[in-house]
Amino acid sequence: MPSRRQVLTTVGALSAGSAAGCLGERETAGAAVDGDGTTDWPMAHFDTVASGYNPKSVGPTEKPTERWNVEVGWSIGRPAVADGTVYLSTQTHLHAIDVESGEERWSRGPTDRTDAPGYTAPAVDDGTVYVGVSRGGGLLALDAADGSERWRYETGDERTGVDVPPIPDSVGDGGWSSLVVASDDGVVHHLDLETQEANWTFEVYGHVSRLVSRGNVVHAGTEGGEVYALYDGEGLWRRKLPGKITALGAQHDGGDVLASTFGGGVFRLRDGAHAGRTRWHTEDGPVAHEAFVVADGRVCGTDLADATVLDERSGDVQWEVDGDFGVPPAGAGDTLYLGGEDGIVAYRLDGGFGVDDVRFGGKRWHYPFEGSVGSGVTVADGAVFAVDTGGEDAPSRLVVLE
């Protein structure tokens, strides 16, 4: 266990931007593109910077029909889609289901330590599924073909778990070479996927609530309201914000960090010479669930009151819509997909025409669920993937709309 850092300077010896270097958008994203141009959704929030945005138009823009649905347990992670398979985590199981037919390929149940392991949302690359286990067990690396365990990384003793989805750090033409994992005792682990050992670890103050990475700089948000920038095991900077970090994102270009807080609004924090300082602060911004959609100069966050789209440059509200949107949204092409208590609603990313919440031509379609949308919305393979929590007498179901 590393010693706790007592002091982090506001600006480290290296800024996040200078350490990051220049990476193209596709290299940062880490999304797999197949031969016909469709794009997978390989990890919880699509890419390493948690943009929640698939740049390909791979979701329905007109009211969809149901491809299939299958009964699942209570979901705790947004579905991931890779190589023709959708992976869904629940309190007790990790399911791998054929994207086209809805047939289950395999299911991994309780671990050797608990009957309800609480799997995180998975991250998938090159035939391997990486998933955290919140109730002991650390990180599991599973064979994507059959779910068998390839290896396990212990983050501490048997009581130490992982409840934040793992993300890759280094992404290149050859696939992922490293993975970032946060254990529930407040330690960030940077793993070498070849050696299956930690390159470095760093202990923050309190529980890590969110992780993003850009150009080998790891950003961690905590329940105590702090945002850290870490590089090669050292702290570049740390910033205290007024509330738990509920969502975190990093820009593809420029390296600024976007953070939503519980009760304190949304912040855009600078990179470069003024790293960690506020570029803008929107006090009435959303208490965003887990992740934003960051695309086309816009930042969308959803909460139990509405969906709000901010201007990425200024933080000003561009448009918003009322609704109980209790899960992270998703974007694809020019469409924004929102999940809430009334099912899934699709809007134009630009909101249509009008001012603030008075809009025309923005709504594309609405698909009602029996219950609410659980865990989040995923867009891939020409379809929307989401869990319908069901009604009083109806079970939770993974639903695919196309």
TrEMBL record:
Family matches, as SUPFAM superfamilies: Quinoprotein alcohol dehydrogenase-like
InterPro entries: PQQ_b-propeller_rpt, PQQ_rpt_dom, Quinoprotein_ADH-like_sf, TAT_signal, WD40/YVTN_repeat-like_dom_sf
Residue ranges of domain Pyrrolo-quinoline quinone repeat in the record: 65-166, 185-285
Protein name stated in the entry: Outer membrane protein assembly factor BamB, contains PQQ-like beta-propeller repeat
Source organism (scientific name): Halogranum amylolyticum
